[in-house]
Amino acid sequence: MSETMQTSAAMPPVQSVPADTDFAGEYRGLGVSSIQFKVSNSDLLILENSFQAKGGPARHLHYDQDEWFYAVEGEFILEIGEARFQLKPGDSVLAPRNVPHVWAFVGEGRGKILIVFTPAGQMEAFFREVTKDNAMPPQDPALWRAHGMELLGPPLSLE
Question: What is the pLDDT of residues 59-77, one digit of tens each?
Fold first, then answer.
C-alpha cells in the first residue's frame, strides 16, 4: 500500500508506492499479466504491467490520450500506425492519441512495462472494470468506446 507524506501547505502531499504494489494495495489481474496503479490524477495515469506469459491487448486507439511505453524487463513488440517497434529494457515509444496501436509481451520468462496515459481520462475506470474478471479486456466495442477508445482488431498474433 502506498504511503502519503504531508508536506508544507503550499505543496501537495507526496505519495510513495513500493515495488510490485498498487497504490491502493489491490490486485488487478489481466490473465497473462497484472497491473499496479502507481499514479493517478486528472493529468496522468502511470501503471506498471507485469507479465507471466506472452500476450497483450487488442488493437485500439485512444481519442484523447497519448500512451507512452517504457520496457523495464523482457521484450515487447508494438505496432503504432504503420511502424513496428521491438522494445527491450530501457527502450520507450509514444503512441499518440488517435493513432491505432497494439502491443504484446513476446519475451521468455517475465516481462514488465511502465505505461503512462496523459491525460488520464477514463483509463483508470477502464482498468478497474476489466480487471474484475482477471482476464484480458473483452473485445466489446461499446465498453472500449465508453472509456474513450476505439476497438479496432484482435491482439497481435504471436505465432
Answer: 999 999 999 999 999 999 9
**146/68 Cα distance (integer angstroms):** 21
Query: Is the residue at 93 inside a domain?
Result: yes
Cβ pair 111, 103 in contact under 8 A = no
Neighbour-count burial of 143, counting CB atoms closer than 10 A to its CB (0-12 exposed, 13-18 middle, 19+ buried): middle
Rounded CA separation 84/77 (Å): 7
Name residue, grid cell 474513450: 148
Count of structural domains within the chain: 1
pLDDT digits (tens, 9 = 90+) for 13-24: 788 898 889 999
Range of the domain at 58: 25-151
What is the torsional sign of CA 41, 102, 137, 112? negative
Q: Is the separation of the CB atoms in 103 and 84 below 8 Å?
A: no
Handedness of CA 150, 46, 5, 26 (dihedral sign): positive
In-domain check, residue 16: no
pTM, 2 dp: 0.90
The CATH number covering residue 131 comes to 2.60.120.10
Q: How far is CA 96 from the centre of its chain?
A: 14
